[in-house]
Amino acid sequence: MMPAKTMGVKIKMTIDGKEYECEPNQTVLDVAGANGIPIPTLCFNPLFASHRSGSCRMCLVEVVAGGRPGLQPSCTLPVSSGLSVSTVSKQVYRARRLAVEFLVSEHTQKCRDCPASGGCTLAKFCRDYDINGVPVCSECPNQRESCLLKRGVLCMGPITYANCNAYCTRKGYRCEGCHSTLVNEDVLRFGLAAYRDAGFRAEDILEGAEVFAHDKVSILEAVMKREGML
Hints:
The protein is α+β, with helices and mostly antiparallel strands. Helices cover 30% and strands 10% of the residues.
């Protein structure tokens, strides 16, 4: 008796409470992508399917049934009949946020010279997971020669998360700074290095910070002293 053919056999799994048909050789990330379910990734590249390491930990999902319970990277998690995962649980959000925080802590902040030129995936994840850790230069529309600092304008964006191109309500022209956070030392060091390279004086930087983030100037001063600028 000839064995039954298995080609074309579909199995069913569940993502976020909804059942999907899939191929036995797919991963959870494959199935999610095919059905428009967003799962963030950094290290995954579909061109290198044999090198899915899950090392960035951004694609974590929570297995709730049909497999080993807990958090697992979806790019390496094979589908199986009855498998049920969540992509939106509190545990998933917290784990992904921790992953972004780690990546930012290990990241060299050289956004103004980065080829991403305003399209940084890591910066997007910082926004998505409410993490204050990447300079606004990573998203600034004024890149390279259009950079305000290179044009001699003391843009406060590198230290106040500004330069959104909104009109300033106080002066009537495009925004060059805003009331915002001045607390992340990595970001401050990045911004101060940019100011130093552009030839701005410490007094001018503090004056601008006083206008746009006056309640946090003491933090900036402390970092400037450690960096030898005061």
